[in-house]
Amino acid sequence: MHIIPFEWKKLFRLKVFIAFLLITIIFIICLFIRNYLYQDIVKGERIDFFHHHSSQISSQLGTDQEKQKEIGEGTDSTLDESIEIGKKLYDKLRELLTLIDEDEHLTALQIENVVYELAIQYQSLGNHYPMSKTEMEDEMKLNKELLKKELPKENLTASIQPAVFIKQTVQLVINTFGFFILLVIIGTPIVKEFDNNTIKLTYALPISSTRMVISKWISLILAGLTWLLVVFMSAYTISSLFGKKITNPYDYPFFTKEMTFISAGDYLQQSILFSAIYLFVLMSGFVFLSFLVKNTLVVHIILFILFAVNLLVIRSGLIYPFLPWGYQELDLTLLQHEAISWLGIIFSMMLTLIMLLLAIRASQRREYQS
Questions:
Q1: Which of 203, 201, 217 is nearest to 359 (CA)?
Q2: GO molecular function, one example (predicted)?
Q3: Which residue in 1, 16, 19, 326 has the most C-beta neighbors within 10 A?
Q4: 219-247 pLDDT, tens per residue?
C-alpha cells in the first residue's frame, strides 16, 4: 500500500483544504478587483499630493514677495534667491500636475526629479517643503531607476502591474497568518490520529518508522506546495490577463532595507524558492511536534505561541535571511538584502534533516503497536 496517496486521501476527504484553496483564489481575485477600481483614486491622490505642495509653495512665495516689497528688491540676497527658486519650483509643480493628469508617466518622473532638486535647494535657504531631504533623495533614486528601465511608478498597495501585484499578494497571503492557517488545515488530520488512536492503523502497516515519517512529511509538503502554486498562479494569471500591459514588468525595482534595489523578477524567484524551503522546515517541525506531543489541542497551542513570538521578533526588526524562521514573513525577509541567502538555504536543509531525524526517533515508540 502506498502511504502518501493514503495521506492525501485523508486530507481531501475533509474538503477543508479544497475550501482553503478556493478562498485563497477568491481573495486574490477580490484584491485585484479592488486595485483595478482604485486606479483613478491612486491618480487623484497623487495629484492631491503635489497640489498640496504647490499650494504651500505659493503661500510661502506670497509671503516672501510681500516682505521683498517692504524692504526692497536686492536688499536681502537670500530672500531674492528664495523667491527665484520658489517660482521655478512652483512652475515645475504645476507642470508635474499636468503631466500626471495626462498620464505622461515617464516625463512626469523626469519633472518630479527636477521638482525635488529645486525643493532641496529651497529648503537649504531655510524654507519649508512638505517632504524631508532624505525622502526626496530616495524618491529621486527610485525615479532614476524607473527611467532607466522605462517603467512608470506604481503604488505598491494598489497596483495592477503584474510584478507589483504579485509582490502585494506575497505580502498579504504568504505570511504568518497564511502559513499558520495552512499548517492547521493540512496538519490536523495527521496529529488527530493520536487523539482517536487511528495511528494504530499506520503502525500496523509493514513499513519502517523512517518511511512513515517521511511519507507524512512529503504529503504535507505536497499539500503546501499546492497552496503556493495556487497563490502564485492565481496572482500571475489574473494580473497578466487584466493588468497593465507593459514590456518589462519584472524589471520593476523594489527598495531593500539597505536602500539598494531588487528587481521584481529576482524578488519573484526568491519568493518561490524560499517559501518552498520554509515549507520544508515548517512541515518537518510539525511532524516532529506531532509525534512528540501526540495531542491536537496542545500542538495547536504550541504552534500559535511559536508563530506569535516569531512574528513579534520579526516585527521588531530582528530579521536574518540565513535563519529559516524569518521567512514566516516572506516579504519582509526578502527585502532585507538584494542578494540571495545561500547560507539560509543550507541552514534550512540542515534544520529540516534534524527535525525529521528527531521525528523518526519520536515515532519509534511502540505503545501504538498491537
A1: 217
A2: ABC-type transporter activity
A3: 326
A4: 899 999 999 999 999 999 999 999 998 98
